[in-house]
Amino acid sequence: MVLKELEVVTLFVGDIAATRAFYEWVFNVDIVYSDDVSAVFGFGGVMVNLLQSKQAPELVSPLETGGEGIHMLLTIRVEDVDVESARLKTLGVALLNGPTDRPWGRRTAAFADPAGHVWELAQVI
Question: Assign residue 66 a region: left if phi > 0, alpha if psi is -120 to 50, beta otherwise?
């Protein structure tokens, strides 16, 4: 068996309604499934599951959720980071940084969702 087919990334969120609305507004991706505690969005071949934080212990026990600082960065490849950054600004989304040319051959810009998950736009340069 080879563990190489990423299917779902689950992000724990405090306010499912606000975070879901943000994803619908900013990403404009299809909803695969939703209920009172979750919303699953299709991002190409990978799904992103927003899950109410109170539901998380069942999935990660005996570990605990939370902690300080950012623990991951999700990257979406785009054709033009500057165009997408400008579009985000018109939607009222504040950039954390960028657009910036990186030494590893990408132009990037980052922003956070209402739950604090950081997303990066990346363009091959």
Answer: left
Query: What's the distance, CA 78 to chain centroid?
Result: 14
Confidence (pTM): 0.86
DSSP assignment of 71-113 equals --EEEEE-S-HHHHHHHHHHTTPPEEEEEEE-TTSEEEEEEE-
Strands of the sheet containing 8-13, edge to edge, are 8-13, 46-52, 38-43, 31-34
List all residues 6 or more positions away from 91 whose beta carbon is below 8 Å from its beta carbon: 25, 26
Percentage with pLDDT > 70 across the chain: 98
In angstroms, the first-to-last Cα distance of the chain is 36
Confidence of residue 90 (pLDDT cuts 50, 70, 90): very high
Q: How confident is the model at residue 59 (pLDDT cuts 50, 70, 90)?
A: confident
